Amino acid sequence: MIPAAMPAVHLDPRLTPIYPLGTELDERGRLQLGGCDALELAAEFGTPAYVVVEQDLRTRAQAFVEAFRAASPTAQVVFASKAFPCTAVYRVLAEEGIGCDVASGGELASALRGGFDPAVIHLHGNAKSEEELSFAIDTGIGAIVVDNHDEIDRLTRLLAERGRRQAVLIRVAPGVSPDTHPSISTGGPNTKFGFNLPEAAHAVRRLQADPNVELRGIHFHIGSQIMELAPFGAALRAVSELGDFPVYNLGGGLGVQYTTDGPEPPSIEEYAIAKVRMVEELFGPGKTVIDEPGRALTARSTVTLYTVQSVKQNVVNWVAVDGGMSDNLRPMLYDARYEIDVVSRMRTREDAPDDVLAHVTGKHCESGDVLVRDARLNAPRVGDVLVTPVTGAYGHAMANTYNGSPRPPVIFVKDGDARVVVRRETREDLFSRDV
After folding, report:
1. 187 falls in which pLDDT band (50, 70, 90)?
2. Which end of the chain has a smaller Cβ tally under 10 Å, C or N?
3. CA 419, CA 200: separation in Å to the nearest integer?
C-alpha cells in the first residue's frame, strides 16, 4: 500500500475518541488509517474488511502494562482473547508482554499458535469438556479458572491420573450487577458463570484439600462495557468473606466510547490505580492483582469498511451495504450503537446541507439486520465506501457465514503499508467441511 499522496490533516476532534490513534483526514476529506488511504484499502482488498491500525493496538497494550505495573509491581495484564481471537493480534499482544485468557480449547490452540508462553495463559469457561481440561493440563498452562463442582470432579481426576499438580483460581459470582446490557452482565446472583458465594466457600475447601491442586486465589468478572469503577469494590467486598489469597483476578470490563456523543470511560491509569487500591485496602499489600482487558485493548484499533449497494426510501431512507450481521452481530445482540461515515466525504460538522438521515442496513434476510439506525451520511450513493469505527472487539470473533456470506479479511496497516493477516473466506471455503 502506497501512502496517500496528498498531505494529511488532523482528524476532527469530535471523531478522535472513536478512531484509531494516528487517524487523519487528507485535504480532500478522505480517511487515512495507519498512513494508508481507506478508499485505496477498499479497492485493493475489497469489502467488507476489518482494518487494524497496528500502532494503536501496541500503544494501548503498552498503556495497560505500564499503568498496572506503576500501580503494583506484581500486577499482571491478561488479554481476554474472546474479543479478537486472531493469530496476528495474539502475536502483537504476546510481544508486548501481556498474558492471555482463553475460553475454550480452540482459543487455547490459537493463543499457542500466536506465540503465548503456556505459563501466562489462563483457561476460563463454564462448561469445559474433559478434552479441553486435558489439553490445558498437558500444555502446562499457568492457571485453570474453576467454574463448578462437576469441573472440580473432572479436573481432580485428570490430575490424579497424570500425577500432575495444577494452579487454579476459583470463579465466583459476587452478586454485583454493573450498569451495562443484561447480556454482558456476568457477576449477578443468577448467572451461568462461577459459584455463588455459599457454594464458593464449599469449593474452596474442596480445592484446598486436594494435593494435586494449588488454589492461588479468587476470580470474578462482573460484566463488560463498564464505565464506573465502584462495582469492582462492591464485588471485592463480597468475595472477601472467602478468605485471604495471594491472587485476586478482578476480570476485565473497562468500557470504550463507541460514538462521539457516548459516555467516556475512565482512563487506563485511573482504572489500574482503582483496582489495585481496592485490593490493597481490603487485603493488604503484596497481592497479585490480575486484570483481563478485552475490548478496552482491541476495540478502537479497528474499523470496518463496507461498500454501498443500494439507496432507497421506504418511509425512511435505507442505505444497504455488502456486510451486516455476518461481520458485526453486536447491534443485533445488544442494541449496540455505532457511527458510520463515507470515507471519501468525512463529515466535518454536525449538520451539512448534503447530509441524509438513514438506516444503514446489511444484506441479510433479517429485518433486524441493521448496523446503524438514524445515521447521518454525506450524500450517500451506490459505490461509496463507508467506515464504522470501534469494531476491533467481537466483530471478527463473532463473524459468521449467514446467507452463505464469506467472512471478511483482517488487514493490518502500519506506516503506510498494509498486509493481510487473515484472508477473505471464499465460496469454496464454505464447503471445506463437507464429507
Report:
1. very low
2. C
3. 47
DSSP 107-127: HHHHHHHTT--GGGEEE--SS
Q: Of these residues, 36, 86, 100, 365, which one is catalytic? A: 365
pLDDT for 349 equals 56
Rounded CA separation 217/288 (Å): 9
Specify the fold of 8-53+299-431. Answer: Lyase, Ornithine Decarboxylase; Chain A, domain 1 (2.40.37)
* Cα–Cα distance for residue pair 64/68, rounded to 1 Å: 6
Instruction: Count Cα neighbours of 237 within 13 Å in the Cβ-side half-sphere.
Output: 6
Q: Which CATH superfamily is domain 55-297 in?
A: Alanine racemase (3.20.20.10)
In this predicted structure, the answer to whether residue 211 has a pLDDT above a threshold of 50 is yes
- Supply the pLDDT for residue 184: 44
Q: Which residues pair with 319 in a beta bridge?
A: 311, 360
Instruction: State the pairing for strand pair 370-378/355-361.
Output: antiparallel
Over residues 362-386, the mean pLDDT reads 96
Weakest mean pLDDT among 128-132, 140-144, 187-191: 187-191
365 flagged as catalytic: yes
Rg (C-alpha) for the chain, rounded Å, is: 23
Q: Per the structure block, which three cell numbers stand in for 136?
A: 490445558
Cell, residue 313: 426510501
Rounded Cα gap, residues 44 and 67, in angstroms? 38
Residue 296 CB-density burial (10 A; 0-12 exposed, 13-18 middle, 19+ buried):
buried
As a whole number, mean pLDDT of residues 280-300 equals 96
Q: From 417, 410, 419, 346, select the one nearest 3 (Cα to Cα).
A: 417
2-15 pLDDT tens trace: 444 566 777 777 78
Strand 31-33, strand 36-37: pairing: antiparallel
Helix (H, G, I), strand (E, B) or coil at 283: helix
Cis peptide before 265 (omega within 30 of 0): no
Helix (H) or strand (E) holding 143: strand 143-146
Per-residue model confidence as pLDDT tens digits over 70-126: 999 999 999 999 999 999 999 999 999 999 999 999 999 999 999 999 999 999 999
Confidence of residue 380 (pLDDT cuts 50, 70, 90): very high
For residues 337 and 223, give the distance between their C-alpha atoms in angstroms, rounded to a whole number: 18
- Let me know: does 375 contact 285? Beta carbons within 8 Å: no
